[in-house]
Specification:
Blueprint lengths: L6 H24 L6 H14 L3 E2 L11 E5 L2 E3 L13 E10 L2 E10 L5 H6 L4 H18 L7 H15 L3 E2 L5 E3 L6 E5 L18 E9 L5 E3 L6 E3 L5 E11 L2 E4 L3
Antiparallel strand pairs: 1-4, 2-4, 3-11, 4-5, 6-9, 7-8, 7-9, 9-12, 10-11, 12-13
Length: 259
Amino acid sequence: MIHIKSPEQIKIMQHGGHILATVLGEVMDKIQPGVTELEMDQYAEKRIRELGGEPGFMKVHGYHYTTCMSTNDVVVHGIPTAYAFKEGDIAGVDCGVFYKGFHTDMSDSKRVTTKSKEQRAEGKKDKVDIFLEVGKTALDEAIKEAVIGNHVGHISRKIQQIVEKEAKYNVVRSLIGHGVGKDLHEEPEVPGYLYGKIERTPLLREGMTIAVEVIYNMGTAEVMLDSDHWTIRTEDGKHAGLYERTIAITKNGPLMLTA
């Protein structure tokens, strides 16, 4: 069942999403060579609580952390460890906030470097830079498809078109976006690829709140589960990337809740 949110509930989610976007932005800025995943996880928990929210992922049965850390070949659900980030790593951070009964969900990826934005802009882009740019572009363009009267399939098709057809990377099939609200994962499913006819995918209606996710690999789309039963890695050991935002479907177009 797809849960339609009232304007008041969307305002609550928007406030929770602002807490989440603020904290995740701080975490991404702080990730530098020498900083550990656990340090960033503990920082995220502290800041979320200071701003009046609760770590949403801690409400998942059996999970005891504020974030999931996806470093290099980790695709999703990586348990934060004492691993210290190194120059050139891809750091992906997934985080959730629970605020006044509602969840929001968000992730981002970055190239770990000591170089300033100006220095990076002056330098020549390599394959990692291009890989990350593709994921962010796919997310931004897919969100534009989240309008009343479109279907989930319009979002899925846009992600797949940019990631696979244009950039020749691979969308992970076994990991998808989702509805979000009172539960962290609600209907509808929001895949990053289209199968079947768009018209047979869920219709986007005013008041729906969804987490749009771009989960993709440099190499094969196949993934595998670590022995910790949480961490999911690429099967071929190549880099992965992830980008996610929580949005609401409104009469004025997609409303970014994690902003």
